[in-house]
Amino acid sequence: MTDQDVKGKTAHRLPRGFHLLLTGQTVSLIGSAVTYLALPLTAIDLLHAGPFETGLLLACGRAPYLVCGLPAGVLVDRLPHRPLLMSANTVMAVALATVPVAALLGHISLLHLYLTAAVVGTATVVADVAYLSCVPTVVSPDLLVRAQSRLELGQSLAVALGPALAGWLIGTFSAPTAIFADSLSFVVATALLPYIAMRPVHREAASGTLSGLASEAAEGVRFVLRTARLRAVTLATATLVFSYNAYAAVLLLYLTGRLGLSAGATGAVIAIGAAGGVAGALAAQPLARRLGLGRTLTAALLLSCVGAVITPSVATAGWGPSLCVALSQFLLWAGQQIYNVHQVPIRYALAPAALHGRVNASIRTAVWGLAPLGALLGGACGAWLGTRATLLLSGAAMALATVWIIRSPLRTVRTPHLDPGTS
Predict the structure, then answer these.
(1) What is the dihedral of CA 112, 160, 152, 32, to 10 degrees?
(2) How far apart are CA 80 and CA 85, in angstroms?
(3) Packed helices 110-138 and 144-172: angle between N→C axes, nearest 10 degrees
(4) According to the model, what pLDDT value does residue 9 have?
(5) Which residue of 14, 260, 324, 368 has the fewest CB atoms within a 10 Å radius of its CB?
């Protein structure tokens, strides 16, 4: 093997820094999956919280996306990514650690949990936007799709492992102790960051006035709106997330109430769905090489739709129907992960590096801001129309996301991905 062959192989290999970044992110995502169960259980078990209190706790964690999303984008484009990520991770680690400490001292309260959820939610917004924006500084442009595939794979593994780990920690120790494990996960992610090589990003001089901040934030929004391909994939993602959250709002009620699945069977179905996410992340690149980017995005969204509507088509209990539901969730998650692997690198290709933070924040604000609205609509429709009809309608609505892709220039893209600098 010649030196040129060795250099060629090395050039197509993801750098060591990316693997460190991926490891830290996956560990913190597993920890976050633990807290997703442990925080409301702390409120329920120790403070006898009811539906309103637990709903408010969830809202405190998600509201920062609407309030802080755009300012976070400005912050990410102004400051170096590494210290920003380290600061956000540290804030989350400390805030989460206060819960088991307060529980141990007997001073835990609902107000404490609300504040913790809000602080962690705010830091999560900053870390999320900074993380997305730093990936192109760690990985070369030609490897971004491969890197995103690995990131989605790590996320799928975290979703699959997190609930099981949470159940073991809560059952063996307690819910507050499980939250401490999440705190430690952010410590691990922070400890790895100094060893990750990141390319510097040219940053324009920032305005210190309030109007200047608003203008900088609006620049990211304007870029998304005026860039046809980026606008299309953002609207498609928003449609998918809105429909999926309406679907998820009643899914567990349908599985346990209508189909009579036990907690163990329901957990198995969710785990199989997460396995579909892993399969989707692995299949995403080969599929795009065969079909091209435009067709892959469309096919992935349709696969999610087909998977979603299989579950409400099952109306009886038993092993056979349970297997159909498991297949349904497998296809749903596989389609979503295939889509995510390819939709995120589109913004890297179309947006200049100096705008990555604000573009990511604009997209995240639009997409995740619709998530709680979708959940509310799904819950209302479940009460009015029933869980089965709601699952059918919201599952079918996922297909509407393809309209944005088909009516955009993305439909004609036959290459596996967009090259950086594409107009």
Answers:
(1) 10
(2) 9
(3) 150
(4) 47
(5) 260
What pLDDT score was predicted for residue 189? 92
Question: Rounded distance, CA 121 to CA 59, Å?
Answer: 10
Distance CA 371, CA 240 (A): 10
pTM of the entire predicted model = 0.74
Closest CA to 343 of 226, 227, 236: 236
CA proximity to 169, closest of 28, 23, 41: 41
Could you give the CA distance from residue 319 to residue 325 in angstroms, rounded to a whole number? 10
Q: CA 371, 374, 378, 384: dihedral to nearest 10 degrees?
A: 150
With a cut of 70, which residues of the chain have pLDDT below it? 1-12, 50-52, 54-55, 58, 163, 201-214, 263-264, 267, 315-320, 419-423
Q: Provide the pLDDT for residue 3.
A: 45
Give the pair of three-digit tokens for residue 259. Answer: 């189909």
Give the residue among 19, 10, 312, 322 at the shortest CA–CA distance from 151.
Answer: 19
Q: How far apart are CA 89 and CA 187, in angstroms?
A: 7
What is the model's pLDDT at position 377? 83
Token pair in block for residue 167:
């159940």
Residue 35 CB neighbour total at 10 angstroms? 27
- Residue 316, burial from CB neighbour count under 10 angstroms (0-12, 13-18, 19+): exposed
Nearest to 140 by CA among 190, 226, 198: 198
* 3-state secondary structure (DSSP) of residue 91: helix
Q: Using alpha carbons, select from 395, 423, 267, 283 the residue that is nearest to residue 341.
A: 283
3-class DSSP assignment, residue 104: helix
Q: Is the dihedral of CA 387, 393, 396, 399 positive or negative?
A: negative
**What pLDDT score was predicted for residue 4?**
46
